[in-house]
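LOG
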Amino acid sequence: MNIKRFFGKNSKLALAQVREALGDDAVILSNRTVKGGNEIMAFSEAEMNAIATSEDTEVTLNADVVEDSRTSTLEDLFKKRMQTENASIPSQSNFNDDVVRESSNDMIEATLAQTKAQAKEVNTQIANMMTEIRNMRTIIESQLAEISWGATQQREPIKSKILGAMLTAGFSPGLSKQLVDNIPKKQSEADSKRWVQSVLLKNLATMTKEDEMLDKGGIYAIVGPTGVGKTTTTAKLAARFVMKHGTENIGLITTDSYRIGGHEQLRIYGKILGVMVHSVKDEADLKIALRELKNKHTILIDTVGVSQRDKMVSEQIAMLSNKKLNIKKLLCLNATSTGDTLIDVIKAYKGQGLTGCIMTKIDEAITLGNVLDVMIREKLKLYYVTNGQRVPEDLHLPHKQQLVHRTFSRGTAKNSPFQLPKEDQPLVVGNTVRAASKTRLLELDNA
């Protein structure tokens, strides 16, 4: 008898080999699991018939397969084996529920972690792509603006000349370009300049009558960074009030206890004016001083001067912003500072709001466009201007027309290295187009 041995990684593969070699009617002698897979011993049906006709031959078959080998064909056994293996596929009932649940949770967590990592990578790629697109857009817009303004210089020389005048006067490129772009067409240079100045005047808020502050009264804190003239300005305001209303109705307070002798300057002015000066260190002292002065018509508070980036500024503003105290804050703006510095100062001292501002040191400033630009941009009302150290002579009500006229008439110093040549205007406009002013101008709104 020719018995053949078949080996496969599993029973399915081994049975497939038997079928291919011996046909569907092959007889299985044994089917067992061995190292590396399954082993099947089988022979063909022809061999089986030969054994059946021989009375001397007796084959002892494996007890596990004897019945199947005598009564079943290979096809039947194959089907039965398939059913057995399908039945042996792991199901929830074959395992402990906790093990299955734990395994499922691990798979879910692993999948989520992988998904998050992939999403993060995709988001990073998108962010990098958007950054590149924005950079490209900036470059393209700048180049287009440069080309456009270069053409404008040739086509509309009046606009080019007025833009140069505004930049020279200290106005920001953004505000300057916004105004110049909206100059009415077919106007002479003089009319165009008057139009620009009229827009600036309409958007510049000022106190027109001194009675608005001195007669109305209230509590005013003079704030600002070091060296802007807060103490001298406080003394000028106090002297102006005393000249009009006498010494009985005004109170003076100083919070400058950090600087050595910081409060002495105001005390000297107070002694000259015949007004007592109260020195306070914190909010508790301030409340006590205000209670003592509650019957005064006007109270002026001279505050400590520190850099606008000092953390002490926020503490000071918090103290002065107590709504129950009803303190109005007037910010001193140094006319000699750059526009960026002035904006930084305003942001530091703004807190819950500024009542207005006082422009100091205009006698030291070459140009005023920087401070006018910032006041228009931040919607700050101008209460006073100061132009010297004399008390109280060098304190004045602001005259808008004079300020704007001076801004355009003086310009920068002769042969100044900071003056922009006409041929470089397209470059400046191109580089600042993205920073174009978003200030809403009254004249433009009404147009």
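LOG (cont.) second protein
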Amino acid sequence: MESIKQKAVPLSAPGLPDFRNLGVMLRLLLAVNLLALVTVLLRVDDPALVVPELVLTGGRLELPLLLAALVLYLAAPRLARLGTQGGRAAVFVIAALAVVASFPLLEGASDVGAVALARRLAWAMGATAACLFYFDYRNRRYSPALTEARLLALTARIRPHFLFNSLNGVLGVIRSEPRRAERALEELADLFRALMQDNRDLVALGDEVALCERYVDLERLRLGERLTVRWELDDGADEGTAGSGAGSARPLLMHALVPPLLLQPLLENAVYHGIEPASEAGEVVVRIAHRGGELRIEVDNPVCDGVRHQTGNRMALDNIRERLMLFFDLEAALDIDAGNERYRVCIRLPYRSART
């Protein structure tokens, strides 16, 4: 049996921010402009001259800043492969080249000389060093939170009721169907091996889907025909793929990078709150779509009378929401639509490919 192997893919080199992240770019632009404001306040004695001087400084600053931000965005995958020191050196070089390239455009034919260029280069190097220090400090500050979120994820996923129910399901068929019970035990061991892996980096969506299919197979041991899972997969190329399995999904969608253990806890909550308490069969629908640089994941399950979703799965949803923030900052979101008949969890995050 092929085991589940979740290959982690880091977004950036250690000590460097992910320059493709919207939150990182917004903080970068804000930090540099704040440094410009501090510089003006220290240089100007007359309060009446602060605003005109700030406008003049901002006019000279925005073009090289936006140019450097654009190059950093485009070069982010290569920076991640340079390592920490190489990546930092490349950031300094990009900042310096942005200042040099924009200098003639800003000054025109005026004779400002090399002294002014050297002064701006020195300011740019100082601002770059300050920004890198800030992002490195922020990463170090959030490292304990990331570790705590990882431990909470592992604790929340390995629930006693899931382990006991899975083992009871295996015991129920071990005499009548020993081969099926043996296969189920292998799947259970494989699933827990994946759950116990290091969860600090992103993994391919295909690995997450494979893990979830193993989990659904285990749940079917005890729920039987009461549990149906329908996968609706769409990579944006055409009409997509729908069915009870996800094996026919397109490679473009399956290579999308997602946080580990993103789908399985959502499926577990859908089964635990929407299928298990019901007396009749029910269907869980998993929709995954890639549209315009955004990956959208929805898990939709029926609502049973007397079952309160908010109490049972708040830990899992809060855990996922926190990990989305740590991985994607402002670019990801988790929304809940709790209707009278269906309960839906929707996750939106930026599309990034493991093949980049």
